[in-house]
Amino acid sequence: MAAPDILMIDDDENICRLVKLYLEKEGYTLQLAHRGDTGLQQFREQPPQLVLLDVMLPGLDGWSVLREIRKTHRVPIIMLTAKGETFDKVLGLELGADDYLVKPFEPQELLARIRAIFRRMTPEEPQDRIIRYPNLEINLANYVLTIHGKHMELPPKEIELLYFLAGHANQVFTREQLLEQVWGFDYYGDSRTVDVHVKRLREKLGQDDEWQIKTVWGVGYKFEVK
Known about the structure:
alpha/beta, phosphorelay response regulator activity, 8 helices, single chain
């Protein structure tokens, strides 16, 4: 049996049926799991191209499933949660989620976000998708960062954000512009999404005398090359 395009781990069977109806109509294959532990097992047996992951799950909660997946895989993950508090959204991003959607949501909105992710995953025309600076190489072809000669794998959204900023050195972008360029859809003004990813990038990149991701107060961010 071929691996599904999408694995949905959610204990709300009504939502699962609705999402399955919409996604299969669009040509996606969808596999369902209604427990965190069984969903994680299904993921390991047949890794999909994308995961829809509920937070409140029996067996193993969504945060734990997310942590386990991120130990070995960089597959895009959209968190589905009934909790709309900023803390829950930021926690998901901190743990490596690529996106989140608060229930109840419109199936069309979920579909739009899935399409945006798959568009970014579609191979482009062959070209050198590598950006190099002293002590830094960003390879978007295989999603590998090399810093001070050491290879480092980042979650997809982090390396896409770094690649975009580094590809426009010394140019300032607002959070909204970065959401549009990197995420490909509107986050409804929640700029914390960009802030969290920048924070995680800074922690991993450390300090360098030649370049840095700099905050331009009151505006946004830029990749500053000295």
